[in-house]
């Protein structure tokens, strides 16, 4: 008898680790190393865990083997509160903070606790696809709003407004953005908050790249502009602190909570059901948020991340028919392939062809719920020389590439 997956998974898709990975593994098993530019995992590219994080985890390990509080260690939650108070989110106590096995777990909990079947959530296109997948798994429909490549990939406010219906429950903001690298200014954030206000939407603000900013970009917490809006802010240690494998993230609920008591109770049920998040990694949160921010040096001129972003952006734009908006934050580039130059009907096939030809793995734009087969995403994490080599090979592959 066949064992089939549940119907709940019908619209759940996460192409960053999609089927093309099987082909990559086949190639590697056959002795062909593959350059994997598909996941934003700093450790895989030689970024080390900051010593202060390891010190806290190791120093507390012997006492971290029991279940902890379902919401997380109180000291770590208090550190999150202090951190957000400094960033303008005033109305927050440790009770409003949940720690999770990465932001991913908390994103799924937040949506599971909110959505009834058929409820709608406004999600950016392109998006980090976990958001669309988690909405679908929770029974909702992700309604994608357009981010405008011609306007530094800023969300199109008119498009968002036009897509609000009486089933819309929430608005997702990803800032700094994965995959585009956009960093939103306050004016844009105020526009998003205003829409949420007028239509009584919850705002989910994914700010996991808040400290990975280039040039003169600055980051504002959405919730700091919206004290009277229910806002859930997500963040964690995976990116700025480069310890994705420790699975440590947090979620902070701000704004008017009195009318959301039922929703908060739902979140508590889900937090209790998974007992607690990985306890050892929670010990690192206070150390990570306080004091010296070791990411800083990587982002300054001459810093590794900044140099890599520059190289990827410059060399991608040197490829005929390829254009890339300069990423202002995060760890990715999301270039466009001019349809007048490249005939691509199926961008997943393009990614597979690139893998077979150059042993190089990127992710197709449609994997980020972008509707046209004319983009792809690569991570800007490899060392400059490796990244330059990879982008040159993408250019070699694209030269003359066309699908029948
Ligand atoms: N949100 C965004 C925008 C991401 O890019 C990622 C990971 O790539 C996550 C959330 C998940 O992070 P975590 O490792 O904390 O689960």
From TrEMBL:
Enzyme class: transferase
Cross-referenced Gene3D superfamilies: Aspartate Aminotransferase, domain 1, Type I PLP-dependent aspartate aminotransferase-like (Major domain)
EC number: 2.6.1.2
Single Gene Ontology MF annotation: transaminase activity
Keyword Transferase assigned: yes
UniProt keywords, alphabetically: Aminotransferase, Pyridoxal phosphate, Transferase
Keyword Transferase: yes
UniProt domain Aminotransferase class I/classII large: residue ranges: 34-394
Cofactor: pyridoxal 5'-phosphate
CDD domains the UniProt entry points to: AAT_like (cd00609)
Family membership noted in the UniProt record: Belongs to the class-I pyridoxal-phosphate-dependent aminotransferase family.
Record-given protein name: alanine transaminase
Organism encoding this protein: Streptomyces fildesensis
Lineage of the species this protein comes from: Bacteria, Bacillati, Actinomycetota, Actinomycetes, Kitasatosporales
């Amino acid at each position: 008898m066949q064992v089939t997956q549940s119907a709940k998974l019908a619209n759940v898709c996460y192409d960053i680790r999609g089927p093309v990975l099987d082909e990559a593994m086949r190639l590697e098993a056959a002795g062909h190393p593959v350059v994997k530019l598909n996941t934003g995992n700093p450790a895989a590219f030689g970024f080390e865990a900051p010593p202060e994080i390891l010190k806290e985890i190791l120093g507390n390990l012997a006492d971290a083997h029991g279940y902890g509080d379902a919401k997380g260690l109180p000291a770590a939650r208090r550190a999150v509160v202090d951190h957000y108070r400094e960033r303008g989110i005033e109305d927050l106590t440790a009770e409003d903070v949940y720690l999770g096995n990465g932001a991913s777990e908390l994103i799924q909990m937040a949506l599971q606790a909110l959505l009834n079947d058929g409820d709608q959530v406004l999600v950016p296109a392109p998006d980090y696809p976990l958001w669309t997948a988690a909405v679908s798994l929770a029974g909702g429909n992700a309604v994608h709003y357009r981010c405008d490549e011609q306007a530094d990939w800023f969300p199109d406010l008119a498009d968002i407004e036009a897509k609000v219906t009486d089933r819309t429950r929430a608005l997702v903001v990803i800032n700094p953005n994965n995959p585009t690298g956009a960093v939103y200014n306050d004016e844009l954030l105020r526009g998003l908050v205003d829409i949420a206000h007028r239509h009584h939407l919850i705002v989910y603000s994914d700010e996991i790249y808040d400290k990975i900013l280039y040039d003169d970009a600055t980051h504002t917490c959405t919730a700091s502009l919206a004290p009277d809006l229910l806002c859930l802010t997500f963040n964690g240690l995976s990116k700025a602190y480069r310890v994705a494998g420790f699975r440590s993230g947090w979620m902070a609920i701000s704004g008017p909570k009195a009318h959301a008591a039922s929703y908060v109770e739902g979140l508590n049920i889900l937090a209790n059901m998974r007992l607690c998040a990985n306890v050892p990694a929670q010990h690192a949160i206070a150390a990570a948020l306080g004091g010296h921010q070791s990411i800083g040096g990587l982002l300054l001129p001459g810093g590794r991340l900044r140099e890599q972003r520059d190289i990827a952006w410059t060399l991608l734009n040197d490829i005929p028919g390829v254009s890339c908006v300069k990423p202002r934050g995060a760890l990715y580039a999301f270039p466009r392939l001019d349809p007048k130059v490249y005939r691509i009907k199926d961008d997943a096939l393009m990614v597979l062809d690139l893998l077979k030809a150059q042993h190089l793995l990127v992710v197709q734009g449609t994997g980020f719920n972008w509707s046209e087969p004319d983009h792809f995403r690569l991570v800007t994490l490899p060392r400059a020389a490796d990244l330059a080599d990879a982008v040159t090979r993408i250019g070699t592959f694209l030269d003359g590439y066309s699908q029948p």
